[in-house]
Amino acid sequence: MGFSAPSQSQSRPLSPPLSSESVSPARIRSRLLVPFLKCLALCLISILVLVAVLGGSRSKHRVYTGTYRRYQEGGALEVLGYDPGFQLGRAPSLKNVKGCPDGMEDFVPCYDVAASIKAGFKNGQEFQRQCKVQKQCIVKPPKGYRLPPRWPTSQRSLWNSNLKVTEERLESSLNGLCLCRILIEESVISFPSEESLMEGYVQQLEEMISAGGNRTLTEMGIRLALDIGCGMAAFSSTLLSRNVLTMSISAYEEHGAPVQFAQERGLPAMIGSISSMQLPFSLSAYDMIHCKDCGAQWHDKGGLLLFEVNRLLRPGGYFVWTLPFLDQSSNSILKIMGKLTSSICWSQLAHNQRTVIWQKTTKQRCYTSRYKQRSTMCEKKNPADVLLYQPLRPCVTEAPNGRWRTVQQQHLWPNRLMLTARRLSRYGMVRMVSKDFNEDVQSWLAKLSNYWSLFTPVIFSDHPKRPSDDDPPAPKNVVRNIMDMNAQYGGFNAALLTAGKPVWVMNVVPTSAPNTLSAVFDRGLLGVHHDWCEAFPTYPRSYDLLYARSLLSQELQKPKPCTLAVIVLEMDRILRPEGWVLLQDETQVIETARSLLVQIRWEARIIEIPGHGDQRLLVGQKNWRK
């Protein structure tokens, strides 16, 4: 016989034989259940210990999900046990959306000048938005695209590969009328003479407005300006040194895409044409409106365009018109302009060579006394704050009660930024003051530093200790062009400025929210009214950061909502590669948005927000796409 080790049964005494009653089913179940319960308890204790260890090593941000690579493993939404299209009847998806064909790198939906002309639109209407249902595709960057230099370097030099500009195109688009010299050297576009030439022009305007005094535009109460037909945003760039914030607008694809130029430089701009429709800005939005060689026929159609300027201009504000040249015809035009401006209570303030400056009246009774028959006052049935797709009207828009506030009566910047309860009451917001506005101010000041710490790829790390307080902070200029997609009173913008961040913010007041745009402008901030079921009037790759609080759930509650896929795809279009998105909303909506972002290969992570119940913060970063 071979040798074998003794078995376990041989090494211990044998158990006594079982009796017939010891093998009953109840006895067997009891003996089997006890070890099972012990094993289950041991597993639960192990899990609790593991959670405690990992949870204690995490940073203050509690990470809810990881990157798109792990998410693609599938089944996540079904496991969570809810329908991501809960408001829409079906789950929105971007899985089948492909990249746009070559040649669509600068695609802007709602604008097709050639098709509009073919359809019979003319006299400026061909440049207006025509939003129709279009095939969805993901806009890719042009070949050779590079991230713009960080601010303030971008103000003086750009990558030509991002704009595809040639010297011939510049010459034809500018018509030799720009007050600056633009150089194209290899891959760089620069503006070597802009500062000296445009500085002299702005100093001339200051002397004309102050009647020879030695006051700057800011000292005269000017904070917000509108530049029509903005060229290469030289005017906007120069006014920044005076703390004057300028919105530059120009028609789509006209004059060599100047809006694209402005935003590449890190300056406020959007596509807009003052031809047949009102601009999406509120009544009395701007302290100064500027037109230098902008091509507008102000004297035509009984001064129809001037009525729109009058609507946008704050009482006591200034309209600056610099003509391309002076000849016999321009002299006759100026005579017509004199009569038209007088009829809407403007006075000519100064005239120096090619530049004429008018000032809107500071006295509201000028309109009520001059128009006793009120034939040229807009009817009350057309509210002043209804902005989208309103045709130009040959009438004076009357300011609501308490809203007649002149440029000279405004607080000088930066005191204008602090919006008091008394000032809010002018906009019918008395009930909102104590709760909404005070919470808005305080919450933004508290949140901003936490938000800024998220702008690092480390946020998407799977390591349980990342991100942490030891990570290096993001630089101040990590982003420049910012959009608040649901701005309310502009609190996010105000907090950024208070913290000294070198940014500008496009404050969007959506149609799904109460129209608070007048309050945004009253604070000395820029804003626009917009429907997020449509494309925003800007070129692709315009912004570095998109922020929205409660926008997505708000949009889903509209009478005729669009899918979240429409909004997410538009966010992808207007954001630059490596740009950031911060979305705060209800958990279910945030999960849906996260699923859409990862489908188009973004990095995305959800963070719990202490003290905000069902609210979550979605941090997303757009990846490079070829």
Give a description of the structure.
- This protein has 626 residues and is of the alpha/beta class.
- It has a domain at 62-99 and 423-621: Vaccinia Virus protein VP39 (Rossmann fold), CATH 3.40.50.
- The chain is built from 18 helices and 18 strands.
- The protein has helices spanning 25-57, 68-71, 76-80, 113-118, 167-174, 194-209, 234-239, 258-264, 304-312, 328-343, 365-370, 421-425, 430-452, 491-498, 517-522, 551-556, 564-574, 587-599; strands spanning 62-63, 157-159, 183-185, 188-190, 224-228, 245-250, 269-271, 286-292, 313-322, 346-352, 355-360, 481-484, 504-510, 527-530, 543-549, 575-586, 603-608, 615-621.
- The strands form three sheets. An eight-stranded mixed β-sheet has the order 1-17-18-16-15-12-13-14. It has a seven-stranded mixed β-sheet with strand order 7-6-5-8-9-11-10, with helices on both faces. Strands 2-4-3 form a three-stranded antiparallel β-sheet, with no helix packed on it.
- The longest helix has 33 residues, at 25-57.
- The chain starts with 24 loop residues before the first helix and ends in a 5-residue tail after the last strand.
- The model is unreliable at 1-23 and 51-89 (pLDDT under 50).
How does the helix and strand content classify structurally?
A: alpha/beta
| Beta-strand segment tally | 18
The Rg value, from CA coordinates, equals 31 Å
Instruction: Please give the order of strands in the largest beta sheet.
Output: 1-17-18-16-15-12-13-14
Describe the main β-sheet briefly.
Answer: 8 strands, mixed
Give the CATH superfamily of the domain at 62-99 and 423-621.
Vaccinia Virus protein VP39
Strand content: 15-25%
Shape: globular
Give the fraction of residues assigned to helices: 25-40%
The first-level CATH class name of the domain at 62-99 and 423-621: Alpha Beta
CATH fold group of the domain at 62-99 and 423-621:
Rossmann fold
Q: What CATH architecture of the domain at 62-99 and 423-621 do you see?
A: 3-Layer(aba) Sandwich
Enzyme class: transferase
Keywords: Glycoprotein, Membrane, Methyltransferase, Signal-anchor, Transferase, Transmembrane, Transmembrane helix
Region (Disordered): 1-22
Main location: membrane
